[in-house]
Write a structure and sequence with these properties.
The protein is mainly β. The chain is built from two helices and 42 strands. The longest helix has 12 residues. The N and C termini lie far apart (59 Å).
């Protein structure tokens, strides 16, 4: 419109119906047209050397099988208008596109979900609208009723007897015995009729929590919706199609948790790749939340918030997802700020990357994370007090063969900055090995006390 080609937003939308605001830039329109021109199988969008700016939204991928390439991170730069919070968004944010609710989630039997197994046994297979290739989240409770404990996986088959076959062996024990529960039933109650409701009293005390209204919860193999909550008294709607018969007694002492179910995911971006680009963001640089199988090679992620126009923010936000790889990438934050991988994001690799005034953070049930052959240059601030967070809720983490130079941080390896109310944490060791660590004015290098799952070996600490 500024060029005079279009006299109004109405005339602009006749040519480009997806444009919903006059702030769209030419670069942003061209990118959207390129995405729409890709076949269903996906393809590559190349950014020749230049500085590209979006004015209305983040650079949104929001579809599968997209590959972005540039002429190198010093030459092909993607940024946003000053008022846009996030630069690159791979998927709609966490839980968007998840088919949730007691009537729509698929309960699985108490003894299925063993670590290393490749299948689950659904209680009511006729209910399950699942097909080979569908992306699902296998959940086994949460921290309180918030951060999900489970994993993304892919359906390969569903047998008539309810056996749900999965592409990847289960990374943790999701049997009912290992439920990440949050509360406990204080007195017996009987299941009401289907779609009926019942008042339930929960136990009070340290470590016991009550779900809020609207939460989908599990008690044993039964799934309910919380209709009301007043202190430790809740009203549960009996909506789970696979629930036990009316009149079944749920005894005092039964555990209650965020739903122990399989959920179908419909809007998670899959199989994204980026090479040779620089992404410049304001509050957040890149969000890989709710994504599956993504990779970045030879990219630079720069957070530039020197005007402090937004509060908070991250260099990298991974709030749920699986399989993310960063190879020969550079992360830079001005001023210093951290990243966060969270909510059971699994299989994350940082290889031969550089981190300048930003950290790596494994938190909230992350599993199978690796940081190897990376370089850290960290000057601590109130907003950045550590170099690597290896949260106690996480497992199967490896931090090996890195070069760390840190000044003014409280701790180099941090196990405290994590959730703390979970009943089960990560499974698998945390290995910190063969790192060269140069420190100045640092509170401590390694966490205290040492967890039995923490393996420290061949680390060299230098204090000038």
């Amino acid at each position: 419109m500024q060029s005079g080609r279009f006299s109004s937003l109405h005339s602009l939308r006749r040519a480009y119906p997806f444009v919903d605001d006059a702030r769209w830039t030419v670069d942003e329109v061209a990118f959207e047209l390129a995405k729409r021109a890709l076949p269903p199988a996906g393809g590559t969008i190349h950014f020749p050397a230049g500085h590209y700016v979006s004015g209305r939204h983040s650079w949104r991928i929001w579809r599968d099988h997209v590959r972005l390439t540039g002429d190198g991170p010093d030459h092909s730069i993607l940024s946003t208008a000053p008022e846009i919070e996030d630069a690159l968004s791979l998927s709609p944010y966490r839980h968007i596109g998840w088919i949730e609710g007691a009537a729509h989630e698929f309960a699985y039997t108490a003894d299925s979900g063993q670590r290393g197994g490749s299948s689950l046994k659904l209680k009511l297979p006729s209910q399950a609208d699942l097909s080979p290739g569908d992306l699902v989240f296998v959940r086994n409770g949460a921290n309180r009723f918030d951060q999900d404990y489970g994993e993304f996986n892919v359906v390969t088959a569903l047998d008539a007897d309810g056996t749900l076959h999965l592409q990847h062996p289960l990374s943790r024990d999701y049997t009912l015995a290992k439920l990440n529960w949050a509360g406990e039933v204080a007195s017996d109650f009987s299941l009401p009729r289907r779609k009926g409701a019942v008042q339930v009293t929960l136990r009070k005390g340290n470590g016991f929590f009550a779900p809020s209204r609207g939460t989908t919860v599990s008690i044993g193999e039964n799934v309910f919706r919380v209709e009301q909550q007043n202190g430790n008294t809740i009203r549960l709607a009996n909506l789970g199609p696979a629930n036990d018969p009316r009149g079944t007694v749920i005894p005092a002492g039964s555990k209650i948790a965020k739903s122990r179910t399989v959920l179908k995911l419909t809007r998670s971006t899959r199989h994204f790749r980026a090479e040779g680009l620089q992404i410049v963001g304001r509050r957040k640089v890149v969000s890989i939340s709710n994504s599956y199988d993504v990779a970045f090679v030879d990219c630079t992620f720069r957070r530039d918030l020197r005007d402090r126009a937004f509060r908070g923010g991250l260099t990298l936000d991974g709030d749920g997802g699986r399989f993310a790889r960063f190879e020969r990438c550079t992360f830079i934050a001005t001023p210093a700020i951290g990243m966060q991988m969270a909510r059971s994001f699994g299989d994350i690799v940082f290889s031969a990357c550089t981190f300048k005034d930003t950290n790596v953070a494994f938190t909230e049930f992350n599993f199978r994370g690796e940081v190897s052959d990376c370089t850290f240059e960290i000057e601590g601030t109130a907003a950045l007090t550590n170099v690597v967070i290896v949260g106690k809720s996480c497992g199967d983490l490896r931090v090996v063969d890195n070069r760390i130079r840190a000044q003014g941080v409280k701790t180099v390896f941090d196990t405290v900055s994590d959730i703390h109310s979970q009943k089960h944490g990560g499974e698998g060791d945390v290995v910190i090995r063969h790192n060269r660590i140069e420190v100045r004015d640092v509170g401590r290098v390694f966490p205290l006390p040492h967890s039995h799952r923490l393996s420290l070996a061949d680390n060299q600490v230098v204090q000038p």
